[in-house]
Design a protein that fits this description.
Layout (H helix, E strand, L loop, with lengths): L1 E3 L2 H14 L4 H18 L7 E5 L3 H15 L4 E5 L8 H12 L4 E2 L6 E8 L11 H12 L1 E7 L21 E5 L11 H5 L1 E5 L15 E3 L5 H4 L14 E5 L6 H14 L3 E7 L3 H7 L4 E5 L4 H10 L2 E4 L7 H13 L4 E4 L1 H8 L12 E4 L2 H8 L3 H6 L1 H12 L2 E4 L5 E3 L6 E2 L12 H14 L4 H23 L6 H16 L1
Parallel strand pairs: 2-3, 2-5, 3-4, 5-6, 6-7, 7-8, 10-11, 10-13, 11-12, 13-14, 14-15, 15-16
Antiparallel strand pairs: 1-9, 16-17, 17-18
Helix pairs in contact: 2-3, 3-4, 8-16, 8-18, 10-11, 12-13, 16-17, 16-18, 17-18
């Protein structure tokens, strides 16, 4: 598991390390500089004309320490104080002095030009305001300059909390982050400004983040084996759950097929699809393993019987937004007594009939909206969601008592009382119709096997992304289809099994 702290949370970890582990701030700064320079040397970068632009805070202190170490490596290094020297921290003043003692000179303004390496150490994770005035002019001049661009911890101008760039930010080719990648460097648009992100260990104790429920995290592949439901030799299909997929409408049989296929591929023992009669032949042909139950009209008694049969329910993929679909959704939401995944048209109907939210019979619901669907539900513009996704997600999940999977290039998952999850797997090949149906099926399949709603959502999203990576490896970035994702889930699970 990887923590993805923002600036405040990382500062708390730094302070804890300094206070409890008795490691002085200057030592942490030296370690940060050393690992940064090691990264530069490992990549055999050109040291013939290096410029390090420093601020007055401790990120600037890191920068001066980096400049000194590069100077000692034989580099031709210029250091610039872009901040106010009168506001320098004690550590930054000391590092500036050490740089001068090593033979370096410190300029008081950045000169736009061609450099072999240009290093940004202006703000880092300490930025808490808009970049304006001389700072803005400096960053824009740095972006216009030539050379390989490296950022120290966080590109200046990127919010560590949201990834937002309010005015402008340094565009790095490589960001060297200390101890943890910062949340703003993995959320967009900050991710675009950070370039490649590499993380170095400088000995900061991050255990304090475990107690901060606002601190986000991401999974690593090594985490999956401990999370996956176990399969016993002496078992049968009933041991791995009965999943009810309420999906599809006229012309949308594919949504039901993809969700059901993905649930099976993920390990569900038995899948039953509830769908309009016109989808029967298609689904029986495409997925003969599934039980097909069909309707021509709304039949409350039959629906209640199916809900009573299921261990987990998924509703909404390709369901449509007709009055019949609305009644099916309403009956499901008000009567389901097992975990329930609500996707696609289920969410669109919910946005139109928000009173249904107050009627949920328990807290075991998983909503899987993309940005536009979430915008309709919370009645906020997509742009505001993108800027403040974690804050809005946290508020919404607390009020609705659900797990919410907000799908995007960086999918985020929130549930009250849990650390927010940010997914780092996947790629642009997955931006295809039906991908969301597959995800709903994967999550449903995991919950069918006994996982909690939150853990099933987290692992499901991560597996879905790994499947996207496997499918891209086989098909390329343009040609991956949703059914390739469902099949690739099996490929990923087999690899993990081995």
């Amino acid at each position: 598991m990887l923590f993805l702290p923002d600036g405040r949370q990382m500062k708390a970890a730094d302070s804890y390390t300094i206070r409890e582990k008795k490691i002085p701030s200057l030592i942490l700064m030296e370690r940060a500089a050393r690992t940064f320079v090691e990264t530069v040397m490992e990549r055999k970068m050109d040291l013939s004309n290096v410029c390090v632009v420093c601020g007055s805070g401790n990120n600037g202190g890191d920068g001066f320490a980096i400049a000194r170490l590069l100077l000692e490596k034989g580099g031709c290094v210029t250091a610039v104080m872009a901040g106010n020297p009168d506001h320098c921290t004690e550590e930054t003043l000391r590092q500036m002095e050490l740089f001068r003692e090593a033979g370096g000179t410190v300029g008081n303004s950045f000169e736009e030009g061609e450099y072999s390496i240009l290093i940004d150490a202006v703000f880092g994770a300490g930025l808490s305001r808009r970049v304006e005035g001389d700072y803005l002019a400096c960053i824009e001049a740095m972006n216009r300059s030539g050379g390989v661009k490296l950022a120290v911890d966080v590109p200046s101008g990127v919010s560590t909390t949201t990834g937002e760039v309010a005015t402008s930010a340094f565009r790095a080719d490589l960001t060297v982050s200390f101890q943890c990648a910062k949340l703003g460097c993995v959320l967009y648009p900050g991710r675009d400004y950070a370039g490649e992100v590499t993380v170095t260990d400088i000995g900061v104790d991050t255990s304090v983040l475990e107690g901060d429920r606002e601190a986000a995290y991401a999974l690593e592949e090594k985490d999956i084996k401990t999370m996956l439901p176990k399969r016993r030799p002496n078992s049968h299909k009933g041991d791995y759950g009965k999943a009810l997929i309420i999906a599809g409408s006229r012309g949308m049989a594919g949504a039901a097929y993809l969700a059901a296929l993905a649930a099976y591929r993920t390990g569900a023992g038995l899948v039953q699809i509830y769908t309009p009669e016109e989808n029967r032949t298609i689904l029986q042909t495409l997925l003969p393993e599934a039980i097909i139950r069909c309707y021509d009209f709304f039949d409350e008694k039959e629906l209640l019987r199916l809900l009573n049969w299921a261990d987990v329910v998924s509703i909404g993929s390709g369901l449509g937004t007709s009055d019949k679909s609305r009644r099916i959704l309403q009956t499901t939401l008000e009567n389901v007594q097992v975990p329930c995944v609500v996707d696609a048209d289920g969410l669109n109907l919910l946005a139109e009939h928000s009173r249904y939210l107050s009627r949920l019979p328990h807290d075991q619901f998983v909503f899987t909206p993309h940005m536009k669907e979430m915008s309709r539900i919370v009645k906020k513009p997509v742009e505001e969601l993108q800027r403040n996704r974690m804050e809005i997600l946290t508020q919404f999940t607390g009020e609705a008592r659900i797990t919410c999977v907000l799908k995007d290039a960086r999918t985020c998952i929130c549930r009250q009382g849990e650390h927010p999850y940010v997914n780092l797997s996947g790629n642009a090949a997955m931006a295809k119709a039906g991908s969301g149906d597959v995800l709903a099926g994967v999550i449903t399949g995991l919950i069918a096997q006994g996982m909690t709603c939150f853990d099933g959502a987290v692992l499901g999203v991560y597996l879905h992304g790994l499947a996207g990576e496997a499918a891209r490896e086989e098909k390329g970035i343009y040609s991956v289809l949703a059914r390739d994702l469902a099949d690739a889930v099996g490929t990923v699970l087999k690899r993990l099994e081995e």
